[in-house]
Design a protein that fits this description.
The complex is a heterodimer of chains A (about 350) and B (about 280).
Chain A (H helix, E strand, L loop, with lengths): L3 E9 L5 E10 L4 E5 L6 H9 L6 E6 L2 E2 L10 E4 L11 H11 L4 H15 L14 H13 L5 E5 L7 H18 L2 E6 L2 H7 L2 E6 L2 E6 L1 H6 L4 H6 L6 E8 L2 E4 L2 E3 L8 E7 L4 E3 L5 E10 L3 E7 L5 E7 L9 E6 L5 E4 L8
Parallel strand pairs in A: 3-8, 3-9, 6-7, 7-8
Antiparallel strand pairs in A: 1-2, 1-4, 4-5, 9-10, 11-12, 11-14, 12-13, 14-20, 15-19, 16-17, 16-19, 17-18
Chain B lengths: L4 H27 L4 H7 L9 H10 L1 E2 L5 E2 H32 L5 H10 L9 H10 L6 H5 L6 H12 L3 H9 L4 H12 L1 H16 L3 H6 L8 H7 L13 H31 L4
Antiparallel strand pairs in B: 1-2
Helix pairs in contact in B: 1-14, 3-14, 4-8, 4-11, 5-8, 11-14
Classes of the chains: A alpha+beta (about 350), B mainly alpha (about 280).
């Protein structure tokens, strides 16, 4: 039996919208699970059902083998960090942290000790007497996490907690959340729409689309081996290139080139996916790219251009190469790293 | 800094406005420190006279009214109790009903809200007979309960509290829920402290409203023990039986000055929050 078990969990809102559809998922103790997907895909709803803030229309949620469908949020022993932090504006930081403990009837000395420990861990000891309005975004974020940690919950739930921070702080807090989770070792679920956040934080990743988990696995599994067109397009930055083609007798023919000996018996219309970083320049390569634009990131260059059939295409090359606008590049796919999807269902076929 | 002509004009207008408000009060106060005879013969006074302590002492301690049962001091106490009761209960009840309307999403919340709102169209004066009938059937005439109870519901305050609660983000409630706060705790630990400026503002409005009630206490009190200040203003120190005694004008001025104090005090004490409540929505 795993730590947290979701069985056929479904959420239908009173107005008939189906937010989460028959989702089953097991999360192990101490695991950092990330739900990633576009806005409105149901990832937050799923998280809120675990927290107890949304009713479960159908299905079961078990925590440590105990059914918690009907258990009150405060009794579930879960702590949540909200997108806007939801700090208590009229209480100082100390009371923000202590409030949940007070409601549990814990004595004053224990509360003080717990709050001080958590504050030390998060380096907010100096602000304990301040009101949230006097804190910066990063400090508020820490207080929100402190409020979760101080209660020693069984699960941390993060609902896009980094999206209100600026880019630099976001990267820093991302690292801190990961470090903290490893230090404290609490099972965590983290919801985000940012695939970089998802890749960097997750032990395991659930890519969610339209209320369904499209793929579940470690970040590298998902990156290396996307099972559907949606996952392939969603994970990876810049996005995977998609080309139309036709698969017949293990041969794929696309506009301008052919790939032979494909490991698939599928026949028909397909979409070929190639990651920008899985290409290299050679003479007489498969793909001819006319360069429109080069983005220099320093470590890498992102080369955007068009293929013969005017399709947009992106190629990522090391930053030390200089590529001029307007040149024609001849590219090969490295190590046969390409993905083929059934065009009608989006399922991977090779 | 150079002062522009427009600013001078603005200040003149403001100063005139201030004079318009302050001068009558000053005249009342100055006149209250003179002898009634000199006011009657020489008109109202602008300077301070020498009868301050005598007049105010008489006003507070002399028994007045038809049956000589009530002193002005007693009337002040009555009015204060009535205004305090009305203000406290109005604020409490409105805050709680707004809480119910906003956070308990029952089906009829919106119709009920409008029903409450419509009562603004039916002030006490319109429903005074049924109200009197009920209060007298309950045996509450000549009691503080009777003075206060029919006035404790407030659509205005409910409306303001409702609007305020609706601006509080849902996450706060959810977070509080996860922290183990039940509905009552959420109200006491969150909504009350967050709306304290609004509570202060409402309290002031309602206190002044309760303090200046005239018709209702006039109708429902038959015993002079429950007379209020505003009623007394009409009745007290007017016993000028023709040819027997002079009207006691100076004492009446003193009475007017005293009657202004309680609302002024409430405003002074609560004004810090009151102004905050008017100019900002603190979150």
């Amino acid at each position: 039996m795993s730590f947290l078990d979701l069985k056929n969990v479904t959420k239908i809102y009173p107005n008939g919208t189906k937010a989460v559809h028959e989702t089953s998922l097991s999360i192990n103790e101490g695991e950092f699970m990330v739900f990633v997907g576009p806005s409105g895909c149901g990832k937050s709803t799923l998280l809120r059902m675990v927290a107890g803030l949304e009713d479960i229309t159908k299905g079961d949620i078990n925590l440590e083998g105990k059914l918690i469908n009907e258990v009150d949020p405060s009794e579930r022993d879960v702590a949540m960090v909200f997108q806007n932090y939801a700090l208590y504006p009229h209480m100082n930081v100390y009371n923000n942290l202590a409030y949940g403990l007070k409601n549990r009837g814990i004595d004053k000395q224990t509360i003080e000790k717990k709050v001080n420990d958590a504050a030390k861990l998060l380096q907010i000891s100096d602000y304990l007497q301040r009101k949230p309005s006097m804190l910066s975004g990063g400090q508020r974020q820490r207080v929100a996490m402190g409020r979760a940690i101080v209660r020693n919950p069984k699960i941390f739930l993060f609902d896009e907690p980094l999206s209100n921070l600026d880019a630099k702080l976001r990267i820093q807090m991302r690292l801190e959340i990961k470090k903290l989770q490893q230090k404290v070792g609490v099972t965590s679920i983290f919801v985000t729409h940012d695939q970089v956040e998802a890749m960097t934080l997750a032990d395991r990743l659930a890519v969610i689309n339209n209320g369904i988990i499209e793929q579940l696995g470690t970040p590298i599994e998902i990156y290396d081996n996307p099972k559907s067109l949606f996952v392939a397009g969603f994970i990876g930055s810049p996005q995977m290139n998609f080309l139309d083609g036709n698969l017949k007798n293990k041969t794929l023919s696309a506009e301008g080139f052919e790939i032979k000996d494909i490991n698939s018996d599928f026949e028909g219309e397909v979409t070929l996916g190639i990651r920008p970083e899985h290409l290299s320049q050679t003479e007489n390569g498969l793909i001819n790219l006319k360069v429109d634009l080069v983005e220099q990131l320093g470590s890498d260059n992102l080369v955007y251009g068009q293929l013969k059939d005017k399709k947009d295409f992106c190629y990522r090359c090391p930053g030390n190469q200089t590529i001029e606008k307007g040149t024609n590049l001849s590219l090969n796919i490295e190590n046969n790293k390409y993905y083929i999807f059934d065009k009608s269902t989006g399922k991977r076929v090779n | 800094m150079k002062i522009k002509p427009l600013q001078i004009l603005a200040h003149i207008i403001l100063i005139l406005g201030v004079l318009l408000m302050v001068v009558p009060i000053w005249i009342s106060f100055a006149s209250s420190t003179h002898d009634s005879v000199s006011i009657l013969t020489e008109g109202m006074k602008f300077n301070i006279g020498e009868y301050f302590s005598r007049n105010y002492n008489e006003v507070l301690n002399e028994k007045g009214g038809w049956s000589e049962e009530v002193t002005a001091a007693k009337m002040f106490i009555n009015s204060f109790i009535m205004a305090l009761g009305i203000a406290t209960l109005k604020v409490t009840i409105s805050a709680m009903s707004a809480y119910a309307l906003v956070y308990y999403r029952f089906k009829l919340a919106i119709p009920i809200f409008w029903l409450i709102f419509i009562t603004l169209l039916v002030p006490l004066e319109v429903r005074i007979f049924p109200t009197y009938k009920i209060v007298s059937d309950l045996g509450l005439t000549n009691s503080y309960t009777g003075l206060i109870l029919p006035l404790v519901a407030s659509a205005t305050a409910t409306f303001f509290f409702r609007q305020f609660y609706r601006t509080i983000p849902d996450e706060l409630l959810e977070s509080a829920k996860l922290d183990g706060a039940n509905s009552w705790r959420f109200f006491i630990d969150f909504l009350v402290p967050l709306s304290k400026t609004m509570i202060a503002a409402m309290f002031i409005f309602m206190f002044v409203y309760g303090y200046s009630q005239y018709l209702w206490p006039l109708i429902m009190t038959t015993s002079e023990k429950y007379w209020t200040v505003v009623m007394g203003m009409k009745i007290i120190f007017t016993e000028s039986y023709e040819g027997v005694a002079l009207p006691r004008t100076a004492e009446r001025f003193a009475y007017i000055i005293l009657s202004m104090l309680p609302p002024v005090l409430v405003v002074v004490i609560l004004q810090k929050w009151f102004i905050k409540g008017l100019i900002q929505t603190e979150k």
